[in-house]
């Protein structure tokens, strides 16, 4: 049997009266043990009728099918987030930081492609070349190249990965200390309607 409640209906006799020892109404039977869908498992009255009332049986049947009583709203639970495991916070922040690193590199690549197509880097390289030749040094070399742009973006991204991972881990440690002092973050969870 499953863990959820199921309902059992027995056949009535031809005369319209229930057979001795059978149940004529639908009743819920818990699936985790206790009462089974075998004869003699359900409590009956004097003439084979169940001891519970018919509305109680219908209410139990409504709970068995939908998981909650008919006409009742969703269940709610108020919980406190008291402790966050530091090692799991470190792992998830590291993985998210690495994912953001790759997003950063793609964004820099797209931005570099757009600005290069517009001729911004050619103009800047010409300007730096003119400034270098005016100051007396040979300025025939480009200052802004794809290697410099992507190398600088990779260094900035690696620093961000380290800082974000450390910040999330330290933040988790501080949260655990504060929740020990004043209690954790209170959450209210409810079922869907």
From TrEMBL:
Keyword Transmembrane in annotation: yes
Here the segments flagged for biased composition (Low complexity) are 44-59
Q: Where is this region: Disordered?
A: 1-74
Determine the domain of life of the protein's source.
Bacteria
Which lineage? Bacteria, Bacillati, Actinomycetota, Actinomycetes, Geodermatophilales
**InterPro entries hit by this protein:** DUF3566_TM
Q: Please give the name of this protein.
A: DUF3566 domain-containing protein
Q: Where does this protein come from, organism-wise? A: Petropleomorpha daqingensis
Domain DUF3566: where?
74-191
| Compositional bias segments (type: Gly residues) | 31-43
Q: Where is the composition biased (Polar residues)?
A: 1-13
Pfam families for the chain: DUF3566
Q: Which UniProt keywords apply?
A: Membrane, Transmembrane, Transmembrane helix
Listed transmembrane segments: 92-115, 148-175
């Amino acid at each position: 049997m499953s863990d959820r409640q199921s309902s059992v209906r027995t056949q009535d006799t031809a005369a319209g009266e229930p057979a001795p020892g059978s149940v004529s109404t639908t009743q819920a039977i818990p699936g985790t043990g206790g009462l089974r869908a075998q004869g003699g498992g359900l409590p009956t009255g004097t003439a084979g009728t169940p001891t519970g009332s018919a509305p109680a049986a219908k209410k139990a049947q409504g709970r068995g099918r939908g998981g909650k009583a008919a006409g009742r709203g969703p269940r709610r639970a108020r919980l406190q987030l008291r402790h966050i495991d530091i090692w799991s916070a470190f792992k998830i922040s590291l993985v998210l930081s690495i994912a953001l690193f790759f997003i950063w590199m793609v964004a820099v690549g797209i931005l570099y492609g757009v600005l290069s197509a517009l001729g911004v880097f050619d103009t800047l390289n010409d300007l730096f070349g003119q400034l270098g030749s005016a100051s007396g040094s040979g300025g025939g070399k480009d200052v802004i190249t794809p290697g410099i742009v992507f190398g600088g973006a990779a260094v900035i991204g690696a620093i961000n990965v380290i800082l974000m991972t450390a910040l999330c881990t330290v933040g988790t440690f501080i949260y655990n200390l504060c929740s020990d002092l004043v209690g954790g973050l209170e959450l209210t969870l409810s079922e869907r309607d």
